[in-house]
Design brief:
Length: about 180
């Protein structure tokens, strides 16, 4: 009788194990290559800080998007950027941006390449490790009120000048912090 019970338990265990294995219940989800899920708000934060900082001429907000070793921009640099915008688009500069699709950098080799590129541009980065990264497309529109010359009555007429462009940005994680590159 005990043999029948043990035999039944073994057969039952084999059936349960087979169901478990063939149904994929024990399978690890490789969708994120074993990486933890990260909230979009978390990895977008440095890019939003950068864009808002440029938009509002807030150098502290711009610099917060970078690690300490990359913080080289000054308020004078930011003012120079705006002076160029005014030369190209006229006065009353308006910047609008939209963060588009985010693509996770899945391959650890690609993360290593990104770390190498950061070290090449910024040797003071030392032995930086990039543990996660996304590529985010940003659509940026810059407009201003520029003067149009040569109107029929000889008067200068205000015309809105606008340019829209798309650019990819890397946001990457080193330690517990996210930055742009």
């Amino acid at each position: 009788m005990t043999r029948k019970i043990i035999k039944s338990i073994v057969i039952f265990s084999l059936i349960i194990s087979s169901i478990f294995v063939f149904s994929g219940c024990g399978k690890k989800d490789n969708k994120n290559n074993g990486k933890e899920e990260v909230s979009r708000d978390v990895y977008e934060a440095p890019l939003r800080n950068y864009m808002e900082g440029i938009k509002t001429k807030n150098i502290d907000l711009v610099l917060s998007a970078y690690p300490e070793f990359m913080r080289k921009m000054t308020q004078t640099d930011l003012d120079s950027i705006y002076a160029r915008y005014e030369a190209m688009y006229g006065s009353n500069i308006i910047m609008e941006y939209t963060l588009g699709e985010a693509t996770r950098v899945e391959d650890d080799k690609d993360l290593g390449v990104l770390a190498t590129q950061i070290k090449e541009y910024y040797p003071e980065a030392g032995d930086i490790t990039v543990s996660d990264a996304y590529i985010i497309t940003v659509e940026l529109s810059i407009s201003g009120e520029g003067a149009e010359e040569g109107t029929e009555d000889g008067e200068a007429e205000q015309k809105t000048s606008k340019k829209t462009d798309k650019q990819d940005f890397y946001v990457y994680r080193t330690g517990d912090n996210w930055y742009i590159f």
